[in-house]
Amino acid sequence: MVPLSWYILLGVVLFVIGAAGVLLRRNILVVLMSLELLLNSVNINFIAFGRYYADFRGQIFAIFVIATTAAEVAVALGILVALVRNKATLKVDDVTVMKG
Amino acid sequence: MDQGFFLLFAAVSVITALTVVLARNPVHSALALMACFLQVSAIFVLLGAPLLAVIQIFVYVGAIMVLFLFVIMMIDVREAVLQRFLPGGNLPALVLLVLLGVEMVVLVLWSDRFSIAEPVAIRGGDEVRELSTTLFADYLLPFEAASVILLAALVGAIVLARKEPG
């Protein structure tokens, strides 16, 4: 069997990579994709803990995380389409004001 | 056997995750993220959660990434390809990331709570049935709330992406 800490470490590595994408990348699309990566690494942790402590709640929380992620992506991409229609930019540092 | 599979899937998922962050073209990022999600769903299978693995493939690879690719097709990404990272000093962010990673790794390796090598009890029987009973009986209210959230997101996305009249 694989020790639990391996799964946790994989979650840590994916989380740090995703956080690097969110903090460092300039393209809004890639920032959103890195956000997906963050949520996915959290799901790995949920399911690993649920498996090793024989508890269903890990998987149930992972299902809720996935549902919330789907909602978040739909709204974020809607905002992105509206933004590009108004301002025609994809750089995060060009979008610093909410109005206009 | 399990460890070999885990190392294989973990290595590929980390490499594809790095490709997501480092690729110049957003389309390459999206395809690498798809590969990463497939590896993560394989890891879910290793963890004895086949239902979650299938949901992962359906929702992430089937729905979310296709949505991303559609948006990439709709908008012009060429001008954003030129510069990958934020200009100027990224030092604080890098320091923060390194601190975060080191802290989490040290805590995981230092604590003895994470060192258990075997699940405390292997459940027998029909796992998906038990899971769905728990989901629809004990977690019915959060389930309904999640469906309302999805409906609100659907309406919100349509309203946001619609062309303004006039």
UniProtKB/TrEMBL annotation, chain A:
Keywords: Cell membrane, Membrane, NAD, Oxidoreductase, Plasmid, Quinone, Translocase, Transmembrane, Transmembrane helix, Transport, Ubiquinone. The keyword Transport applies. Gene3D superfamilies: 1.10.287.3510. NDH-1 is composed of 14 different subunits. Subunits NuoA, H, J, K, L, M, N constitute the membrane sector of the complex. The lineage of its organism: Bacteria, Pseudomonadati, Pseudomonadota, Alphaproteobacteria, Hyphomicrobiales. This is NADH-quinone oxidoreductase subunit K. It comes from the Bacteria. It catalyses: a quinone + NADH + 5 H(+)(in) = a quinol + NAD(+) + 4 H(+)(out). It is found in: Cell membrane; Membrane. Belongs to the complex I subunit 4L family. NDH-1 shuttles electrons from NADH, via FMN and iron-sulfur (Fe-S) centers, to quinones in the respiratory chain. The immediate electron acceptor for the enzyme in this species is believed to be ubiquinone. Couples the redox reaction to proton translocation (for every two electrons transferred, four hydrogen ions are translocated across the cytoplasmic membrane), and thus conserves the redox energy in a proton gradient. Its EC number is 7.1.1.-.
